[in-house]
Design goal:
Chain A: Pfam families: Clat_adaptor_s. Chain A: This is AP complex subunit sigma. Chain A: Belongs to the adaptor complexes small subunit family. The complex is a heterodimer. By secondary structure, chain A is α+β, with helices and mostly antiparallel strands. Chain A has one domain: Beta-Lactamase. Helix content of chain A is 57%, strand content 22%. In chain A, the strands form 2 sheets. In chain A, strands 1-2-3 form a 3-stranded antiparallel sheet, covered by helices on one side. In chain A, helix 1 runs parallel beside helix 4 (83-106) and helix 3 (62-72) packs across helix 4 (83-106). Chain B is of the alpha+beta class. Among the domains of chain B are: 1-94, no CATH class; 98-199; 397-492 and 616-692, no CATH class; 711-835, Sandwich (Immunoglobulin-like); 838-963, 2-Layer Sandwich (TATA-Binding Protein), CATH 3.30.310.10. Chain B is 53% helix and 12% strand. Chain B contains 37 helices and 16 strands. In chain B, strands 11, 12, 13, 14, 15 and 16 form a 6-stranded antiparallel sheet that branches. Chain B has a 5-stranded antiparallel sheet with strand order 3-4-5-8-7. In chain B, helix 5 (84-97) packs parallel to helix 7, helix 9 packs antiparallel against helix 10 (172-188) and helix 28 runs antiparallel to helix 29. The two termini of chain B are 75 Å apart. The relative contact order of chain B is 0.04. The chains are: A alpha+beta, B alpha+beta. Chains A and B meet through strand 1, helix 1, helix 3, strand 5 and helix 4 of A and helix 1, helix 3, helix 5, helix 7 and helix 9 of B.
């Protein structure tokens, strides 16, 4: 199946991973293939960040999924296509959180 | 991974375990109640606030979007917390819960975080601004500051770029207010060494190009260079930016899109792509197309590679491609058509549509070779592919292929998807109308289309056919005959009946004498001729199978028949009487009205008034174009080009309305040609509309650049010295060398990095011609472009030639040199270059006696050959230095021993002669300078054999002497 649907003035690009669907609505002049690959990159990075990601990971830790997305895409624009950089940012956030918790416990 | 928030996990688990909707709702209600109570506790810990806000968010994500007001306080506390995860939750809740209208106070934590020194917090704040929820205009300067400062870490710059984009999008007036100084700097961020920053900046610059393309002069060289590094230099892109095997595909595609958009703008203002950029872009496109044939492993690589390929091919159309380049591009695409990947087939078709509509004939013909393959794709298993294939076929069709294509498409109709059919019908109709060379063919095909497509034919199509029939006498008889044939068919679509009723009503009388070949085949029909009675019966038999609106048309047709054929009158009257009882009010009304009209008087006066001959349609709009579907949405230059193409091809079919007309004519009402060129003017709004408005508004005026401070010294020096320093600041020195060769001035500019501590990177040098574009007085030809990077104490050369074409070069048309580069911070320079008529002067020694003779000869030319200027200077010029200056300008100074100096010793005479070289021809120049008051007061007389040149030369000399040489 083609992963692109023209809908009104936009295009819907979707991709399915097991039981999960990822959808992106893009403008007509946007590049469909690369949108598909953004979805793929997002999934890859969630996979790394969560460690073998599954649907439940995303549900129970949705704020992290948002964080990864914010590093990758902001306001519909690709921000950072580097694998490492996004993961580094998300990992850093985890470290910070751990550190904060540690401090909370000590105080 | 950090520990979970247990309460949150439990809550999510509860909801997931809910068996029914009601149970879920109850659980949520309980939780909301709980949270509301908790938030009343002022001693709540940060962690607890985070947990409860997270629960609220989860409820929100589930679709319970009712706005609660009790969370804002807690979220504010979270956003101002010193703990990262709490702050993150705070901002996340703002961006999900809030509408921009009530996000006013959320800017407070943003302000704190932007000014604070915690990079992670700054990043969160910037990301929040980039969501556009909070009003970012309050933090505009700070955000811009991050992007501008070279010391900001890439992470922050990247997010600042996104935030700035969002602020500008929401408040375009902020961009306008700051554009002059900001835009060149923002464009320069494209070349940031960090590819993440670069990627983010492309989006921002793309927005600026839509708004203020005239200020993005440094864009093309910068973007092109970045693109070529990414695409062509295998060592430039680090591993982490490789997407599978493809270097930074997002950056490449976005850059290509940006470049394409900017070139569209250049075309629009009739500017030109500078040659080095053009060459680089062609190389990038060429290499990408070549690479596309090499097989890659893995879907991801292929997708990314194809994405870059499609973007390149889309750009190719704007690069004045050679026929070979176009052919190789179409070939590369055609190869991809039988890819097993549906997405690839789909996008290949899309790319082919763009290429064929922009690439003109070559691309079209080359693609047409594979017409059968493309026609075959109409049977593809995927609907999106089928739709695109149809679009491509539509753009490909030419007069040569129209018959094959239409034949195929008409047959295809039966198997086509229901959703595709209306569009298909419109496309067939438009193609027929555009390319038909044969009237019989046109009518046959269109009627066949209506019979085949039946109810899928939109109102516009059959109305259009009627317009064309009414406007073209030669088609009417044929149409009437064919309609009779179709009406014999029992299983006829109503659309056909509508057309049939109209045609027989209007033109039925034309075929009364025609033999009715099929008559004996049909039961109950005995007439050998197509008499009025036969026509009446045909419609009458259809009448009761039709819907009211078709019946109404038939009723009207009968009225027309009534007028023409007396023998039908009783029949028609009976019929109308019958329909007085119709249950449809419209039919009943019509029957009543018609009956009254024909029985009102004995004569037919009223009838004649009402049922006159159908007037010619003068409406210029072709109703079909609205239905052409996605094709009509293709961007401006495309439809523009297509408009031109069609214009030519359809001109052969255009002819005026009239009885004596022979040959083929569709004087369609207006016609497609007009329509599509109108569409093209409407379709280019973003540049055109603004161009119009900027003329009247006090917006930025690109024509008068503000020059860099202290530009004059170098400029005036360059008016008489052939080499020296043109400009200098603390970072850079520009030296020049000018060589004259007849009408060609050779320029060599050398840019030297004066610093000993920093490299200059991302240098772009743009020469902007100041002469008119239609009749340029000079043309600049680039010889060698400077390199973009200059190491410490190193230099680079920039060579170009200026060809003087005519003497009509006034003193305000000099070209400007725009330099921009990064050296620590972004710097840009603008200086004028000495391209003036005076610079084309070379010495031509003349004896004094000859000088006098020529002086008198040229004087006979009248006022246009002479200029006399009196002026004073603050600086005193000794005679000897005056002579040197004038000699350097290109005059041969007559030896003062040859003539008598005036008796008054305070006066000095200097005489000089020279030849002015232009492509237009060479002209003699005579100069007569009288210096008084110890070289402070002057009278300058110039005479020149070319008209209107003397004054220009004189003014240049005066300006130099007044400035101080």
């Amino acid at each position: 199946m083609c992963n692109v649907l023209e809908y009104k003035d936009s295009k819907i690009v979707y991709r399915r991973y097991a039981s999960l669907f990822f959808l992106a609505a893009i403008d007509n002049e946007d590049n469909e293939l690369l949108t598909l690959e953004i979805v793929h990159r997002y999934v890859e990075q969630m996979d790394k960040a969560y460690g073998n990601v599954c649907e439940l990971d995303i549900i129970f830790n949705f704020q992290k999924a948002y964080h990864i997305l914010d590093e990758l895409l902001i306001d519909g624009q690709v921000q950072e296509s580097s694998k490492r950089e996004v993961l580094r940012r998300v990992g850093q956030a985890d470290d910070l959180e751990n550190m904060d918790e540690f401090e909370n416990i000590l105080s | 991974m950090p520990a979970q928030m247990k309460g949150l996990s439990q809550f999510i688990a509860d909801i997931r375990n809910a068996k029914a909707y009601d149970e879920e709702r109850k659980r949520i209600a309980v939780e909301l109640d709980n949270i509301r109570r908790k938030f009343q506790d002022t001693k709540l810990l940060g962690y607890q606030k985070k947990k409860y806000v997270a629960k609220l968010l989860y409820i929100h994500i589930l679709g319970y979007t009712t706005v609660h007001d009790f969370w804002l306080g807690a979220s504010m506390d979270l956003a101002r917390s010193a703990t990262f995860s709490e702050k993150q939750m705070g901002y996340l809740s703002f961006s999900l819960f809030l509408e921009s209208s009530n996000a006013l106070e959320t800017i407070l934590p943003v302000l704190e975080d932007l000014w604070g020194d915690n990079v992670d917090f700054t990043t969160l704040a910037l990301q929040y601004v980039a969501t556009g929820v909070a009003d970012g205009s309050a933090v505009l300067e700070a955000v811009y500051g991050f992007l501008r400062s070279p010391t900001t870490v890439p992470l922050v710059r990247r997010n600042a770029s996104a935030a700035l984009l969002r602020i500008f999008r929401d408040n375009p007036e902020l961009l306008l207010a700051n554009c002059r100084s900001w835009v060149p700097r923002l464009v320069a961020v494209l070349d940031d060494a960090d590819l993440g920053v670069s990627t983010s900046a492309v989006s921002l610059v793309s927005f600026i190009v839509e708004e203020l393309p005239e200020l993005c002069e440094n864009l093309l060289p910068l973007a092109t260079r970045k693109l070529s590094k990414v695409v062509l230099d295998p060592s430039y892109v680090k591993d982490e930016y490789l997407y599978y095997d493809i270097p930074a595909p997002w950056l490449s595609v976005k850059l290509l899109g940006l470049i394409e958009r900017y070139i569209q703008y250049l075309h629009f203002v009739e500017g030109e792509i500078d040659l080095p950029s053009l060459a680089t872009l062609r190389e990038v496109v060429h290499q990408t197309i070549n690479r596309s044939s090499s097989p890659l492993a893995g879907l991801q690589s292929k997708n990314a590679q194809s994405a870059v390929l499609f973007a390149c091919i889309s750009l190719l159309g704007y690069l004045d491609p050679s026929p070979e380049a176009l052919a190789s591009a179409t070939d590369a695409l055609l190869l991809l058509l039988d890819s097993p990947e549906t997405n690839t087939r789909y996008l290949t078709l899309d790319a082919l549509i763009k290429l064929t509509s922009r690439g003109g004939k070559v691309a079209q013909e080359n693609t047409s070779k594979q017409l059968s393959v493309i026609l075959h794709l109409l049977e593809d298993k995927d609907i999106s592919v089928r739709r695109k294939a149809l679009d491509l076929i539509y753009t490909l069709t030419s007069a040569a292929t129209v018959e094959t294509v239409v034949e195929h498409l008409t047959k295809y109709f039966h198997t086509a998807d229901y959703t595709l059919r209306p569009e298909l019908a419109v496309k067939i109709a438009v193609l027929c109308e555009n390319f038909a060379t044969d009237a019989v063919w046109y009518v046959t095909t269109m009627l066949r289309l209506i019979s085949v497509a039946g109810t899928h034919v939109s109102r516009e199509i059959w109305e259009r056919i009627i317009q064309i029939l009414v406007n073209n006498l030669s088609l009417q008889l044929l149409a009437a005959r064919m309609v009779v044939k179709y009406l014999r068919d029992k299983a006829l679509s109503e659309t056909m009946t509508k057309v049939g009723a109209f045609v027989l009503g209007e033109f039925g009388h034309l075929i009364l004498d025609q033999a009715d070949e099929d008559a004996n085949l049909i039961e109950g029909m005995t007439a050998k001729r197509c008499t009025a009675r036969v026509q009446f019966d045909l419609l009458y038999h259809k009448y009761f199978y039709c819907a009211p609106n078709t019946r109404a048309i038939i009723l009207s047709a009968f009225l027309k028949m009534y007028k023409r054929h007396e023998d039908l009158r009783p029949l028609v009257l009976d019929f109308y009487e019958l329909e007085l009882n119709s249950i449809d009010i419209e039919i009943q009304t019509r029957a009543m009205e018609y009956l009254r009209v024909v029985t009102l008087n004995d004569d037919t006066k009223h009838l004649d008034l009402i049922v006159g001959e159908m007037p010619v349609f003068v409406n210029k709009v072709n109703p079909l174009m609205a239905g052409v579907g996605t094709i009509a949405q293709l961007n401006a230059p495309v439809s523009h080009l297509r408009g031109f193409g069609r214009n030519r091809s359809s001109s052969s079919v255009l002819m005026s309305h009239g009885n004596g007309s022979t040959g083929l004519v569709f004087q369609g009402a207006g016609g497609l040609v007009l329509q599509s060129s109108e569409a093209s003017t409407i379709r280019r709004p973003s540049f055109a509309a603004r161009n119009g408005s900027s003329a009247s508004s006090p917006g930025p005026e690109p024509k008068k650049p503000v020059l860099s401070p202290n530009w004059q010294e170098g400029y005036f020096r360059s008016l008489h010295f052939d080499q020296g320093i043109l400009y200098e600041n603390t970072l850079l020195r520009i030296t020049y060398r000018i060589t004259k060769k007849n009408h060609v001035l050779g320029f060599q500019l050398t840019y030297k990095n004066k610093t000993t501590h920093a490299d200059i990177t991302g240098l772009t040098a743009t020469l902007r011609s100041g002469t008119s574009t239609t009749q340029p007085a000079y043309v600049i030809e680039l010889v060698t472009a400077p390199s973009s990077d200059i190491a410490q104490s190193e230099k680079t050369d920039h060579r170009f030639n200026v060809v003087l074409r005519s003497t009509g070069l006034s003193n305000v048309e000099q070209p400007t040199l725009l330099l921009s580069f990064m050296c620590g911070a972004f710097t840009s320079l603008k200086v004028k270059l000495p391209v003036l008529l005076l610079r084309a002067l070379t010495a031509a020694p003349l004896a004094y006696s000859n000088f006098l003779t020529r002086w008198a000869q040229v004087g006979a030319m009248g006022a246009s050959g002479e200029a006399v200027l009196q002026f004073k200077t603050s600086l005193a010029y000794p005679t000897i230095s005056l002579r040197r200056i004038l000699a350097r300008m290109g005059f041969a100074i007559i030896d003062e021993t040859e003539y008598q100096q005036p008796e008054d010793v305070s006066q000095e005479l200097i005489l000089g002669t020279g030849i002015l070289h232009t492509l237009q021809g060479n002209f003699g120049v005579l100069m007569f300078l009288e210096a008084r008051a110890e070289g402070r007061e002057f009278t300058l007389r110039i005479r020149c054999t070319a008209p209107d040149v003397a004054l220009i030369l004189a003014e240049t000399i005066v300006s130099l002497l007044e400035f101080g040489a």
